Amino acid sequence: MSDKSEKIEKAEKVEKAQKVERTEPRLSVFKTYKLYVGGKFPRSESGRVYEVSDAKGNWLANAPLASRKDARDAVVAARKAFGAWSGATAYNRGQILYRVAEMLEGRRDQYVREVAEAEGLSKSRAAEQVDAAVDRWVWYAGWTDKIAQVVGGGNPVAGPYFNLSSPEPTGVVAVLAPQESSFLGLVSVVAPVIATGNTAVVIASERSPLPALSLGEVLATSDLPGGVVNVLSGRTAEIAAPLAAHQDVNAIDLAGADEVLAKELEIAAADNLKRVLRPQPVDDWSATPGTDRMTAFLETKTVWHPTGSLGASGSAY
């Protein structure tokens, strides 16, 4: 037998031995889901968790059960991040949102699996939802430096004045993510809030929080400053109540609230005149969203400036 044949035979034996070794069972590595607050991944302050099941009732994971203290911590983180994020250029915000889309694209298979399990969808249908979510980030990334041109501008006035209106972010926005659309719906309510310079405290879908908690891992590695988006999971009503009443929350999106809870939160939000975006029926989250969710959390600043005369000729500008 030649040396070459001996080497091939030896290599085959080694490969067979390795295959035998690989058949030995190994311990499963279960993922530990955590909150995302201030750019970090804490467990719930209370130490509580709750079981999350798939559409067929099979156990998937234990998710953190956030408390009122976690909600307050998230508001503090969001307020701390607001100055730098709202002060960043619109172009820079757009770059970061596009980076989120890039990172999601790289983890597409993970999200397809999580969405399929959470919503009971086929793999192909879940893939459509994930692709639409990635595209939604790209869509809002393109709007960051254009929305001011749509909702702002010069106003005609009677008198020698410049009158200019420009949009500014509202501040800290509490967002109740949709209950049924665990990922595409989530992205569709979070992206417009931060695209315009606001910061967000997000309450994930109570029944299907895992895609939202995994989104925190993407945001943490996408150049998004810590605190711009904070993700909480748990009982929606329990977390939303202190956020609606919180004096340092400027607005609240009730997309994930039922009729009864929405009414209670509206009453609590009135105490400091929060902007409230009421629940709106959405038949298809993949449809083009328009600009409504961006303009819902924008304030309009109007500046008056006198026109001046140039020289003795009396010409004006």
Task: Describe the secondary structure blueprint for this structure.
Layout: H1 3-22, E1 49-53, E2 59-64, H2 68-87, H3 90-106, H4 108-119, H5 123-143, H6 147-151, E3 153-154, E4 161-169, E5 172-176, H7 184-195, E6 199-203, H8 210-219, E7 229-232, H9 236-245, E8 251-253, H10 259-269, E9 275-277, H11 292-295, E10 298-306, E11 309-310, E12 315-316
Parallel strand pairs: 5-6, 5-8, 6-7, 8-9
Antiparallel strand pairs: 1-2, 3-4, 4-10, 11-12
N→C terminal distance: 97 Å
Question: What is the chain-wise order of helices and strands?
Answer: HEEHHHHHEEEHEHEHEHEHEEE
Spatial strand order of the main sheet: 7-6-5-8-9
Indicate the overall shape: globular
Task: Give a quick rundown of the structure.
By secondary structure, this protein is an alpha/beta fold. It has eleven helices and twelve strands.
Q: Which structural traits does this protein have?
A:
globular; 317 residues; 3-stranded antiparallel β-sheet; alpha/beta; single chain
Describe the structure.
The chain contains eleven helices and twelve strands. The chain has 317 residues and is of the alpha/beta class. The strands form four sheets. It has a five-stranded parallel beta sheet with strand order 7-6-5-8-9, with helices on both faces. Strands 3-4-10 form a three-stranded antiparallel beta sheet.
